[in-house]
Amino acid sequence: MSISRTELVQAFDGLLQPDRFKDYGPNGLQVEGKAHIARIVSGVTASRALIEAAIAARADAIFVHHGLFWRGQDGRVAGWMKQRLQLLLAHDINLLAYHLPLDAHPEYGNNAQLGRVLGLAADARFGEQDLGWAAPAAFDSGQALADHVAQALGRRVTLVEGGAQPIRRVAWCTGGAQGYFEPAVATGADAFITGEISEPQAHLAREMGVSFIAAGHHATERYGAPATAGHVAAALGLEHEFIEIDNPG
Questions:
Q1: Which residues of the chain are in CATH 3.40.1390.30 domains?
Q2: Which of these, 224, 227, 125, lies nearest to 180 by C-alpha position?
Q3: What is the pLDDT of residues 175-205, one digit of tens each?
Q4: What three-state secondary structure class fits 45?
Q5: For 138, which DSSP code?
Q6: What is the mean pLDDT of residues 207-218?
Q7: CB atoms < 10 A from the CB of 147, how many?
Q8: Is 227 helix (H, G, I), strand (E, B) or coil?
Q9: For residues 108 and 240, what is the distance between their CA atoms, to the nearest angstrom?
Q10: What's the pLDDT tens digit per position in 11-63?
Q11: Distances (CA, A) of 121 to 9, 125, 170, 172
């Protein structure tokens, strides 16, 4: 079974509602390919490795969180950009990318799916565009929470422990959301989980008594794309495959 490109874009737009967000780049169809789609490959980032794997998988469309185009980037089609575009165009593959809309979706988005993986049931949203999530928790310490996150994600994490108190409330926002730390603290969180940590957050964590866990940008954002693309593919009767491209960042 196949559907038109227009139907596929409408399905993703209807689910993720990109017009609600002020974002860093275009959401939706970024590269136009064949007019009809039967097979979707999802991944985190539109890297050359993912595009090559999608070609090998005979994909008609690729669905990602991190697309090719970002506000303020060099607009020249050369080097790595030329190589990625050349592959997509030569094989007539559609590229669809959704950034903040994929972070925010209440069921299939990155934050919702990270909460599912970690066993956290969110009861509040916070921060700019309500992208941050918070939930009650029961961990004896920041280290106990960090161990839980590491086990759930299958990788080492960076912990800056804020104090010796138990963790009764956890806030999180996937990816490069270290700027959400102070809004998370304002919600009453005892710990904050995101993908990355910048230099100031280590000092803030110690001074504010709130633990900070950096679990990896890719690692915290690898669940939303397959959940969303899998849901849409099932609803439309399409084939879907998630392809993991390892990334330690």
A1: 3-98+223-241, 110-220
A2: 125
A3: 999 999 999 999 999 999 999 999 999 999 9
A4: strand
A5: E
A6: 98
A7: 14
A8: helix
A9: 15
A10: 999 999 999 999 999 999 999 999 999 999 999 999 999 999 999 999 999 99
A11: 30, 12, 10, 11
Superfamily of domain 110-220: NIF3 (NGG1p interacting factor 3)-like (3.40.1390.30)
Q: Convert 228-240 to b/e letters by CB count within 10 Å (16 or more is b).
A: bbbbbbeebebbb
> Which secondary-structure segment (H or E) carries 44?
strand 39-45
- Rounding to the nearest 10 degrees, give the CA dihedral for residues 142, 147, 151, 155: 90
Say whether pTM exceeds 0.90.
yes
Name the nearest CA neighbour of 8 among 54, 42, 47: 42
Domain 3-98+223-241, CATH: 3.40.1390.30
